[in-house]
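Students often ask why we bother predicting the structure of a whole assembly rather than each chain alone. The short answer is interfaces. A chain on its own may look different once its partners are present, and contacts between molecules only exist in the joint model. In this exercise we take two input lines together and write out one structure for the complete complex. Read the inputs first and try to guess which parts will touch.
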Amino acid sequence: MRRITIKGLLGHKLRLALTAIAIILGVTFIAGTYVLTDTLHSTFDALVGTIYKNVDFQVRGVAQFSAKNAAAATRNPIPGSLLTTVRGVPGVAAAEGNVSGSAQFIAPDGTLISNNEPTLAENYDPNPKISELRIVEGRPPATPDDVVMDAATAQKYHFHVGQRVRVLLPAGTQTFTISGIAQYGTASTLAGVTLAAFTLPTAQRIAQENGQFDNIDVVTRPGANTATVERGIARVLPKGAEVVTGQTVLNEETSSIDQQLSFFSTALLVFALIALFVGSFTIFNTFSILVSQRTRELALLRTVGASGRQLFRSVLAEAAVVGVVASAIGVGLGVLTALGIEELLRGFGITLPAGPLVFQARTLIVSLAVGIGVTVVSAVGPARRAVRVPPVAALRDLHAGGGDVSRRRVLAGAALGAVGTVLLLTGLTKPAVGITGIGAAAIFIGAAALAPSLSRPLSGAIGRPLARSLGVAGRLGRANSMRNPRRTAQTASALMVGLALVAAIAIFGASAATSATSSFDNAVRADLIVSTISGNNAGNISPALPQALAAIPGVTAATVAYSGQFEIGQSVEQLKAVSTPALGKTIILHLVHGNIGSLSRGDLLIDLTTATSNHLAVGDHVRGKFALTGWTTIRVGGIYQPNALIGSYLVGGAFYRSHYADPPPGAVLLDTSANPGAQRAVEHTIAPYPGLQVQTAGQFKKAATAQINQILGLVYALLALAVVIALIGIVNTLILSVFERTREIGLLRAIGMNRRQVRTMIQTESVVLALFGAVMGILIGTGLGVALVSSLHAQGVTTTTIPIASLLVFLALACALGLVAATWPARKAARLDVLTAITTD
Amino acid sequence: MRASVWNKSPDPGTGGRSAVVTAVGDPAGGAGPVPAAQGIDLVKTYGTGPAEVHALAGVTVTFEKGRFTAVMGPSGSGKSTLMHCMAGLDQPTSGRSLIAGMDLTSLDDTRLSELRRDRVGFVFQSFNLIPTLTAAENITLPADLAGRKVDRDWFDHLVIQLGIGKRLRHRPAEMSGGQQQRVACARALINRPDLVFADEPTGNLDSNASAELLAFLRRSVTEMGQSIVMVTHDPHGASFADRVVFLADGRVVAEIGKPTADSVLERMRTLGA
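Now the answer. The structure tokens for the assembled complex follow.
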């Protein structure tokens, strides 16, 4: 049997090669993702390790919120006097206080320098025992005007020592002199983070922590008992401060990086699995066709005594060989692609650190296992069909059949679809990604099982306009697409999966965009919104700016909006605040109970959803914790209709400012009665602040939509791979069909069909196949999208929008892809030698 | 491989139909009506050197209009190759073939397709019909390929003559071999071609179906003025023709007019000896 397997492989090189491409692409994606994330992982870990290499202990403020859902701990600064105290603890060799905030260099051309990474402002730490930061050129900052720049930024923007540089600070811009250029150990940058290091007082001013530190790094004397030193430090610390080991800090940092990276790698792996899932349809289809084409050969083998088991194994062995070869190639390409993905992500503006590629054994094992597994599992169905070929089939003139659709198959498909739907909805409400994914997969497999029964009527209907406009070639193409419902359905199913996901994402995106727009319309009445531009990491709206804006002639109302965190009911929540005078001119609040005036009395307003789930009514008192002021009891003064922009908790500006230290405004909302003069005056007023912008209501909404579309673009790019694999499936089927119908094409050519007409015939078939898949995909995708959107109701996606225009574009695109897929098969068919074609069996 | 000497040297630079007609008037001898098809010194060689095989070793043959010609010969005599070369399905190594005075060797693929569609009809031994099309659709296929309207009267006439009226909506898989061949005949005639090539059209049929098909072919020549060339190895079939051309080893070796089954058999016996 082994020889037969090998002969089989050699006999269908082309088909198997096309199948292999599907596996190669999927495995490439998996291996690439692993290599990429492992590489990033080790690079980041090395960087963090570098920073805390010498630190034995760190003294810092205790985490203010005990709730577990906080993304990062909120800590208050510690008094500067603590540094001397800590230095005095026996066994402490050195201690240095750190203060860090945000400062952003401005390039000579006026643009803000940012790599989509933090733009750090620090005090320059002169102690080489603690810090890895080294001056490579110039000298440390000595005057309030001095700044030390990281080497990467200096290099990229051609800054040199002694040059003046404008820096965006929370309070506005200030010009500094570059006193030195520094790097971390041998790295010129920390993963794209830009660094501006100042003298301690300047750094404290920038961080708005005068006379305070964020933390103090401690190095112990050689030979000192670290436990004793730690106890010694703890003893001298005031309430609200704690001492932890350097290792603890390192672990915290590493785990937060791990979390972000694992989100990133999970997301990429999901797309890789989608691609392989689509690939499995192609493999299933190819092996089905191979088996049905070899019916006679298989029957002959049965006649001469091969057991069903041997045939089964022979087909599976063929699949396994394809799987092994394709997966191995995939792993190789994956390593190369890791570099490519890095570039791609850079193209989307995500900066990644450079480092040597990391190739773990796990990458190889998982990639091979998944690639081979998918191939072999997909071939089980066709292999079982091979076993069912009766020996007598060798004697019959069986033409490649497979047109029958059994009732059992329809029932199984429907049942699978139903189970999938239940799983999907369960997964979405939980929410649990795994269950949702399995549910979606079950729906797709169920739909693929049902597809053959839809294939004849649906491809007939899709092909009708083509047949009418393209003459007899179109009619023949349409007829060919209806000829083998199972094959048509299997081929189209791959594209169905790809397009269903694309459609679902499109619906999600459109719904998110309309929801954002409608929550804006339902919350904001202001004509102009002053806010920080994206890419501004450092510049705040200065506390004095709202007054200046309010004073502009034509501005009839100015509302300052804030946003911060507080702890309530064992969870950390977002608290929004608005200044109360003339609030009605800029903000819309649909109150269900209570009144808006209670905001100025220091009451808390909550939305209806929160009120209902926490059984709260107007007049109730709740306890909230603020990082600065601790636990406070607040009265619920009103309940409003939920709005994503406003969020669940709203207080007045005065209350907010008394519980947060110098809070910068998040935005200033202006009412100008649409006076264009006022808008120009506002633009003029914010001109000195490069990090600020003024937007009309329309511009604000458009920007929100644009942001959603950018994410959609990234997702579409990742789904494109699945669509490409589906296309390969179409090419594969068409090539097989052309091969099978050589004789028929020869006859058509003999009685006068010209090459162009042959091409049209194949193209029509291809377009019908593609559209069949697209129509099914878009229908299922619409269902998935609607389910997804309704599960995100609480997350602020409140409106369901079905972007008909986008869906039509996808259909048109499927049409075009069908034409692309037909190119090669159509050429092959048109080039068939007429005489050879009519004389083949 | 293709010897273009022949079609270029007599009349360089002219590809037009009338020029070709005058050019070929001479070898045919006299200024009579243009024949349905002519093969002039057709040579078809496969392989090179010692492995060289002459399927056609210089065949010159004329098929007149309105006549039913049978081509006979033992297998390997080159009768199918002759048909392929004369019908524009294959290119001769040298020599020329003409359909209604048009030189096929000068035509590109598109023109050849057009010629096969509009001027030639084909009936093959088997696999004559497109499985996805009904009988009616198969019949009108050449007209449909040309994007031309089907002559309804002619279509009805053919259907009645062939007795396939009840089968028009059927697909090939639902028809008997004889019915399929009759549909193929209707398809071959629908465009009123200059010439119909039938390659062993009764080869897969039982004697009744064969007789019916041959009778139809005969009638289409006598009553409708068609021109037919039929490749066959059946003396009875050949007896339906006006004339039988015998091929052996790639050459025309004999010819008889007004054949009967006996005269054909007799001649075959003498040639075979």
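Check your guess against this: Chain A touches chain B at residues 471-473, 475-476, 479-480, 482-483, 743-744, 747-757, 834-835, 838 (CB under 8 Å).
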